[in-house]
Amino acid sequence: MFSFMNPGAESGPTTWTVSELTAYIRELFELDYRLQEVEVSGEISNFTRAASGHLYFTLKDGAAQIKCVMWRSQAERLRFRPAEGDAVLARGRISVYDAGGVYQLYAERLMPAGRGDLALAFERLKEQLAGEGLFDPETKQPIPTFPRKIGIVTSSGAAALRDILTVLQRRNPLVAVLIAPTLVQGDLAPPQIVRALRWLDDRDDIDTIIIARGGGSIEDLWAFNDERVARAVFAARHPIISGVGHETDFTITDFVADLRAPTPSAAAELAAPDLSNIRPYIQQTSRALADGLANAIAQRRETLRARLRLLWLLSPRRTVDADRQQIDALTDRMARAAQRLLDRRAGRLAVAQAGLTAVSPLGTLARGFAIVRDGDGHLIRSVTQARPGEAITIQVSDGVLGGRIDGQGRASG
Known about the structure:
By secondary structure, the chain is α/β, with parallel strands linked by helices. It is about 40% helix and about 25% strand. The chain has helices spanning about 20-30, 70-75, 115-130, 160-170, 190-200, 225-235, 250-255, 265-270, 275-315, 315-360, 360-365, and strands spanning about 40-50, 55-60, 65-70, 85-95, 100-115, 150-155, 175-180, 210-215, 240-245, 260, 370-375, 390-395, 400-405, 410. α5 (about 190-200) packs parallel to α6.
């Protein structure tokens, strides 16, 4: 036992260390037998199952709350699976957790006592929206594989935003990000979330929208169970990924969204591909495309060759070429035959010309004879035809001479 007064001190309170004071308070709890076996009713909030198997949660009602822990040995004997929003009866003892400086209920038994008000409201809205078709798989939009810009609806100072940005920067730094900051908790959060979502959805440069916040109790996440938010998500023309809470948390927004992610970080992973994983695929695809293109070109080239060969066989060009050559040969033969004919005719003509020349007056003239004509151009064959004083022409071999018949019947020039 610890005493409040230091007997050796004259006045003033005793100075305690934090450990001493906490141990004293714990002892006070443990000495009160009424607190060593209590049964508390309330609604489960902030429920967590640790990797060790221990359960950590809060029991609350409309005015207060108390932290609770149930060790794995007791948790393994439970006949139901506790969940956020469950109304339960917890039996155990009250003591102090020294390291945290808080008193808490160490539960040994846990029994369901119905659903809490928030859980009932969640189920009613879930059933209503499901009946209206807001959860139907047919209404879900596919998430773009290679987004250019991602919109994010969350609190500007939240750890969830830092987690999303870190994941996007690591996986795909080429993706642009546009943040629409909003409250994510409290009565003012739903209209702000709707406003932020609609602002992003009205833009044409957005490919995917992430709605996110970190984990918390059902009260902390209640803004994402609001009907206004659910209907805004359903009406959005851009695909939406919901990354609200932890893996065990479910909200109405998760059901309405096109894709539900267990955490904000997981939402970022689903929104953008990892470039390190895509690069080998791109290289492999590029090689496959190059090989396929080369094969296609080779096949087309061979097909073209075959068709050219067939075209050559069916083409009239060979016949035309042969006929053209034959025409050239016939033309040459005709030219030679014509030349030979002309040569023969020329020889015969020369012989005939020589014969004609021999009997021609011109030949006679060439031998020294002359042709005399009267003024009318008639040949004078005899002197009896010449009249004195008549003009005459004398044709010799190289020209014509003029003259006149004198009175004695002789020609004078």
